[in-house]
Design brief:
The complex is a heterodimer of chains A (604) and B (192).
Chain A lengths: L11 H5 L8 H8 L55 H14 L6 E7 L2 H16 L10 H20 L6 H4 L6 E3 L8 E8 L3 H8 E2 L3 H5 L15 E2 L5 H8 L4 H8 L10 H11 L8 E9 L2 E9 L10 E2 L2 E2 L5 H12 L4 E6 L8 E14 L12 H9 L2 E5 L22 H6 L4 E4 L5 E6 L2 E9 L1 H10 L4 E10 L9 H6 L2 E6 L12 E15 L2 E9 L4 H6 L5 E2 L2 H5 L3 E12 L19
Parallel strand pairs in A: 1-2, 1-3, 4-5, 11-21
Antiparallel strand pairs in A: 3-6, 7-11, 7-15, 8-9, 10-11, 12-14, 13-14, 16-19, 16-21, 17-18, 17-20, 18-19
Helix pairs in contact in A: 3-5, 4-7, 4-9
Chain B lengths: L12 H9 L3 H5 E6 L10 E6 L3 E6 L4 H4 L9 E5 L1 H5 L12 E2 L4 E8 L10 E7 L4 E6 L2 H4 L16 E4 L9 E2 H13 L1
Antiparallel strand pairs in B: 1-2, 1-10, 2-3, 3-9, 4-6, 5-8, 6-7, 8-9
The chains are: A alpha+beta (604), B alpha+beta (192).
Bound molecules: zinc ion (ZN) (2 copies).
């Protein structure tokens, strides 16, 4: 090949000149634009799985029979990655990851592949060089595409072999048609991330790039860096795939060398001298690429339902202080743990449409929730585990509750407010079989069954969760509570409360949550209030509020920070006992008046 | 009849019995502490209610000379204003500005009251600084006091006459005295 020859070279080896010695045969084929591997087929068949402790990935040097220049280190373009299929260590690592996670119901999986950044850098360099030699770089098969193909092929065959001769073969064996591919979007899609690194990546990139702009100041760009022997480093912010593309993608060979601070020694010294600088950039490497990680994750599964909480001694969510769990149990654990187990999920997140305090019961039609099961190893539990059998198990669950009540009251034994809801009586009766126990954290607690009831459990998707979170803002809630007043009341004086509604109260973030919630004044609509006289200092209050109203503060006024309040309306210090959520008025329910009928929870 | 009974009076028997079982929420949630002679001003005692979440609510103790005296008739001679720094650090709308750093002697609000005329007819203005009492960050001031300073005299247990809510470390309250100590010290003062 002669300089200045404008006709395209007939083979990539010609175009590369002496550079081809630095590359393996498979990479030469990539550069040539060939997508088959017939000329470079495997000489090492897939190995049966070993159980070696040594999980380090030792990539073989080039194993192609016709690759005569394999000595002197790994290929300067792929660092051995093009020969992954011959690596028993890589197969072992894959098998071990597959067996460890033991995914069930796998039909397909998508591969997320990460290559060493210096390999990507070198790909830009070799393409730019080839362009300068009139070789069409767009013919080149991308390194990532080629490695992806090899990893996909290897992983698919590993997966099929992973559970051969295994007792659990039936449940874990992938079904026919399993593929690992770039696609794999779907409800139960499995994502396999394979990450490769290279020991020299950092040094090599640091050698060519500076991550700060300081260099610009040190060396003015106007001619300062052009002096012979002075190496001006290119300025680049971080080194990522996107950065490489942006900084290197559209540069010609001389522009690239100038950007990198490497001047071609001479443009008229013959082709051999011009190649030297490129040979340095693309030299073979002593170490091969390393397998940094194999991670697998599957999309979440969502289960929705509604729950009732029939106790004043159980919080909705587990309470942690400095990483230590302070609560024996919680609604989220009672519901989430059996689901986590059934789907073999890594963990779960419990999302509810609002929340009630630990000492507040959730009655009536229950509160909607979604359990998000993260990274489930199983998408379809065995036939004997159904959502209704899980529901029954949750409803019969033995719940550890605090022996003493929360902040609102000390003792609620035998308290069932009589007129709340007929439908919950059976459940309350079930709470009779209390047995004393002490929890792991030493706090007094007892174990009671049936305190959390779930219903209408079914599978859902992520969109429903978003919808639920939005909808909870628009809902109304009906509460029942017992109120104590310092001043004596009469049935007539209570009329003031009835007449006051509907009204809007200005509610500052309650003092009791002000340390963790942002401070704000929120207007909250009180749709109606019903007060029932009990005696001179007690009455039963039912109140329908806009979602997000703090009812305890609505009653006692929170040092005047919720205004008006029951306290200010009655002009008497007031306190709240025994708060229950009677009903969440769902989207379909408009504003309802008490005694309008259909409000079963409010009738005797 | 019952309605006029003080919270712990003889007539309020039903409420007293209930209150023994079920103390008011200020007692349920707060530890009551006192700062005696705030900023070195003799007798200017403040109360500091420490919430279980460690937020502090500061106000004037019953022994403070301003509230120990009868409130001025009509309240017209009473002027209360918060310092500009305290008001500026309030949360306004959704925008939260940097909160004000407080020292124990930082004045949060100033209360001026006209004294009764002397024999020669001259009138004096008594001015009291209501202070932070602790090192901490100001969370909120009770702006209702500006229009209704008589709330300061509200001695009821769940009184609305507090002045400021402060976020402070637990150590910040070390120099304050307990409710029992306060009772003992101020009772002793009265007997002298
Ligand atoms: Zn090869
Ligand atoms: Zn290669």
């Amino acid at each position: 090949m002669a300089e200045g020859d404008s006709s395209a070279p007939s083979s990539v080896v010609t175009a590369l000149g002496g550079l081809s010695e630095s590359f393996c045969n498979r990479c030469l084929m990539r550069l040539e634009g060939r997508r088959d591997t017939a000329a470079c087929r495997l000489i090492t068949p897939l190995q049966p799985p070993h159980h070696d402790d040594d999980e380090d990935l030792q990539l073989p040097l080039c194993v192609c029979p016709d690759d005569a220049t394999a000595s002197g280190g790994y290929c300067g373009l792929c660092f051995g990655l093009m020969h992954l299929d011959a690596s028993a260590a890589f197969q072992r690592a894959l098998l071990s990851a597959i067996r460890r996670e033991r995914y069930e119901d796998v039909h397909e999986a998508s591969l997320l592949l990460t290559l060493p950044p210096n390999a990507l850098f070198r790909q830009y360099v070799v393409k730019t060089f080839l362009e300068s030699r009139h070789w069409e770089a767009r013919r080149v098969v991308d390194l990532k595409e080629a490695v992806r193909w090899i990893v996909e092929t290897t992983a698919t065959s590993c997966w099929k072999g992973a559970f051969r001769n295994d007792a659990d073969e039936g449940s874990c064996m992938p079904r026919d048609g399993f593929t690992l591919s770039a696609g794999g979007e779907g409800e139960s899609a499995l994502r396999v991330s394979v990450t490769f690194g290279h020991s020299g990546a950092e040094d090599e990139l640091k050698d060519h790039f500076r991550s700060t702009a300081v260099g610009r100041k040190d060396r003015p760009s106007s001619g300062g860096g052009r002096g012979r022997g002075r190496k001006r480093k290119a300025v680049i912010k971080g080194v990522s795939l996107a950065t490489l593309q942006k900084e290197l993608g559209h540069r010609s060979a001389s522009e690239l060398l100038e950007f990198l601070g490497l001047q071609q020694e001479s443009t008229d010294g013959g082709p051999g001298r011009g190649v030297e600088v490129w040979r340095t950039l693309l030299a073979r490497v002593t170490d091969g690429a390393e397998l940094a990680a194999i991670d697998m994750e599957r999309d979440s599964i969502f289960i929705t339902g509604r729950y009732l909480k029939l106790t004043r001694r159980l919080s909705q969510t587990a309470w942690f202080v400095e990483g230590q769990k302070k609560t024996a149990s919680s609604v989220e654990e009672v519901i989430g743990l059996p689901l986590q187990e059934a789907f073999r999920a890594k963990t779960f997140k419990f999302h509810a449409s609002g929340r009630e305090d630990v000492d507040v019961r959730m009655l009536g039609n229950g509160r909607p929730f979604i359990v998000e099961l993260l990274n489930p190893r199983r998408t379809y539990p065995p036939a004997d585990i159904t959502l209704s059998s899980l529901e029954a198990a949750i409803n019969a669950h033995q719940v550890a509750v605090q022996r003493c009540g929360g902040s609102l009251q000390e003792d609620d034994d035998g308290d069932d407010n009589g007129d709340d809801t007929g439908e919950d009586k059976d459940a309350m009766a079930a709470s009779g079989d209390a047995t004393a126990d002490v929890t792991a954290d030493g706090g007094p607690s007892e174990v009671v069954s049936g305190l959390v009831q779930v219903r209408e459990m079914r599978r859902a998707d992520k969109r429903l969760m978003m919808h639920m979170q939005r909808a909870s803002e628009e809902k109304q809630k009906v509460y029942a509570c017992v109120v104590w007043t310092e001043k004596a009341i009469t049935p007539t004086s209570l009329q003031r409360l009835r007449d006051a509604a509907p009204l809007t109260v200005q509610q500052k973030t309650p003092l009791r949550v002000l340390h963790r919630r942002s401070a704000a004044v929120r207007p909250k609509a009180i749709h109606w209030m019903e007060a029932e006289y009990i005696n001179g200092h007690f009455f039963a209050l039912r109140v329908c509020t806009q979602a997000g109203t703090y009812v305890k503060e609505l009653v006692h006024g929170d040092l005047g920070r919720t205004h008006p309040s029951v306290r200010s309306l009655l002009d008497s210090p007031s306190d709240i006992l025994q708060l229950d959520v009677l009903r969440l008025v769902d989207d379909e329910g408009g504003e309802r008046q008490p005694g309008e009928g259909g409000e079963a929870a409010l009738e005797d | 009849m019952d309605g006029d009974a003080p919270p712990h009076g003889e007539k309020g028997r039903s409420s007293l019995g209930f209150r023994q079982l079920f103390p008011p929420f200020v007692q349920r949630y707060f530890t009551r502490l006192y700062c005696l002679d705030a900023a070195g001003c003799p007798g200017e005692d403040h109360y500091v209610l420490q919430h279980v979440n460690h937020l502090l609510v500061v106000g004037l103790a019953p022994s403070h000379p301003l509230v120990a005296a009868q409130p001025p008739p009509g309240g017209g001679q009473l002027r209360l204003r918060f310092t500009e720094e305290a008001l500026a650090s309030q949360v306004s709308g959704k925008r939260k500005r940097g909160s004000l750093s407080l020292k124990p002697e930082t004045t949060i609000c100033v209360c001026e009251v006209d004294s009764p005329s002397d024999a020669d007819g001259t009138r004096h203005v008594l001015s009291y600084d209501i202070r932070a009492c602790v090192n901490g960050d100001l969370v909120e001031v009770n702006e209702r006091l500006v229009d209704n300073p008589l709330l300061l005299w509200d001695e009821r247990q769940e009184g609305e006459g507090w002045v400021a809510i402060i976020k402070a470390s637990q150590r910040a309250t070390r120099h304050l005295v307990t409710s029992a100590e306060y009772q003992r010290r101020r009772a002793a003062d009265m007997n002298e």
